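Run log // design_07
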């Protein structure tokens, strides 16, 4: 895998993660009496698997085919979003938290693998530049993910979730 392909895969993955998080915020706003707390808990649920499992998944990526892990992670998250799509009419605050954890598991698998690939494809003299580019992707995706979610919501939640499902698959 080359850096430009990895860059695109990471951009799509981060962008999809950001949009789905903002879509879940939108869902929470629809039925939460304490939206600030609900949103904070949802983000906590999304990040908790990454915090707890990234070291374990990092070891896993050292032993398995990294390209397959990236693909599995993207397909997995696409499948989770597809399930969310079908459960939209039945979603509750608890289910949103549950799916935030489940999506966070996919991200926890993706990101250590991506970092391991970078060290294999970039010369050590260029690693600091590659890491700077990769680090900026997350912030950029979060920024544009908010705008993307806002745009997609105009077409309805079903359309938004279908779009994110396809975006994960394209990664």
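design_07 sequence
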């Amino acid at each position: 895998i080359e850096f430009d392909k990895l860059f695109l895969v990471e951009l799509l993955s981060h962008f999809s993660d950001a949009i789905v998080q903002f879509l879940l915020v939108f869902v929470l706003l629809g039925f939460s009496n304490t939206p600030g707390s609900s949103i904070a808990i949802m983000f906590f649920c999304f990040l908790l698997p990454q915090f707890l499992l990234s070291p374990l998944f990092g070891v896993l990526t050292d032993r398995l085919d990294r390209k397959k892990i990236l693909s599995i992670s993207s397909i997995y998250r696409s499948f989770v979003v597809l399930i969310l799509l079908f459960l939209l009419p039945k979603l509750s605050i608890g289910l949103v938290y549950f799916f935030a954890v489940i999506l966070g598991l996919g991200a926890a698998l993706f990101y250590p693998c991506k970092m391991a690939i970078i060290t294999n494809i970039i010369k050590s003299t260029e690693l600091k530049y590659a890491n700077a580019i990769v680090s900026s992707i997350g912030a950029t995706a979060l920024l544009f993910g908010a705008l993307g979610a806002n745009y997609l919501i105009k077409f309805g939640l079903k359309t938004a979730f279908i779009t994110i499902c396809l975006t994960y698959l394209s990664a």
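Residues 3-31 form the longest helix (29 residues).
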